[in-house]
Amino acid sequence: MNNTDTFHILALDGGGTRGIYSAQFLTKVEQFLDMRIKDCFDLIVGTSTGAIIAGAIASDIPMDEIVELFEIEAPDIFQKKWYRNPLFASKYSNEKLAQIIAKHIPATPLSEISTPLMITTSEITKSDLHIFRSNYVEKLGKSDYSDGDVCLRDAIVASCAAPTFFAPKYLKKYLLADGGLWANNPSIAAYTEALTNFGKQVPQIKIMSIGTGHSTAMYRKRRGWGFLLGWGGIKLISYVMTLQSHTSAKMMKLLLKDNYLRIDPEIDFWDIDTVVQSENLKSMAARDFTEHTSKIEAFIRLPKIF
Fold first, then answer.
1. What residues contact residue 213 under an 8 Å CB cut-off, 6+ apart?
2. In terms of pTM, does the model score above 0.85?
3. Contact, 132 vs 150, CB < 8 A?
4. From CA 289, how far away is CA 25, in angstroms rounded?
5. Alpha carbons 68 and 66: distance in angstroms, whole number
């Protein structure tokens, strides 16, 4: 099987401000290959902060601009308000998140996006998943494509609506929250899409999956395990999403073996709503890119040579 027979997928985890790691890693990829990320993959899938990056890729925005988005805008997105009681309201403002997304991501309907793109969300009224797709579904002749009129910005905001951090977003007939509740690492969703809507065979599929860091010190043994003091309140949300990412990665490695490349650094517990570790995350991204440089070309769609 040559490179043109292979179906190349980029899967981008959620993780709040830790998304600067993914954006910095992809900046290094673009610089190394002298190519836009959108030209390197047949399908791009993102969850939450990964949806921001995926949407930027599909909009042909250079990755170094998205690194700047995290560095400059994240403090405003995650600015604590004295009048927001977390027992009664979400911790941060959806309006501020939407405003900042609108500054950087164009107001493009999904039906006008030619890059194959998936954005994961959770439909919380029915305890179901919901995936937004660009127009590739229509091109493939799928009759159930109904989200073409959804604005890319709105789909991203819905995917970012992590419980307790942001309120759910009502979009069309759906009440949507963070896709990280079921697909913080969207590799399995991407794999399923390749098999079904794209009709690919397992040996054809290669996935490069980029995480935002998994903690090696999330919890320690203690006496009390109440919601606030034991499980840490909203820390539990981060734990559940991290666990989903790690589990999905292990499952995909069993299914695809060497056709699955997972890049996800070990970290201490770093909150997903702080920017204090930005420089550390960028340094880790540069380190991990150097470590995986020799493998990267095998997981991207190289230009055809005639």
1. 15, 18, 21, 264, 265, 266, 267, 270, 281, 284
2. yes
3. yes
4. 6
5. 5
239 three-state secondary structure? helix
Give dist(CA 38, CA 156) in Å, integer: 17
Q: Closest by alpha carbon to 121, among 97, 157, 151, 172? A: 157
Provide the 8-state DSSP code for 306: -
Contact 176, 158 (CB under 8 A): yes
- Which residue(s) pair with 132 in the sheet? 119
User: To which residue do tokens 């010190």 refer?
Assistant: 217
Residue 7, φ and ψ in degrees, nearest 5: -105, 110
For residues 128 and 219, what is the distance between their CA atoms, to the nearest angstrom?
Answer: 29
pLDDT digits (tens, 9 = 90+) for 225-280: 666 666 666 777 777 888 888 899 999 999 999 999 999 998 887 777 877 788 99
pLDDT in tens, 92-110: 888 889 999 999 999 999 9
Among 115, 9, 2, 15, which residue's Cα sits nearest to residue 55? 115
CA angle at residue 38 from 28 to 195, to 5 degrees? 115
* Cα 43 off chain centre by: 13
Task: Determine contact, residues 273/92, Cβ cutoff 8 Å.
Answer: yes
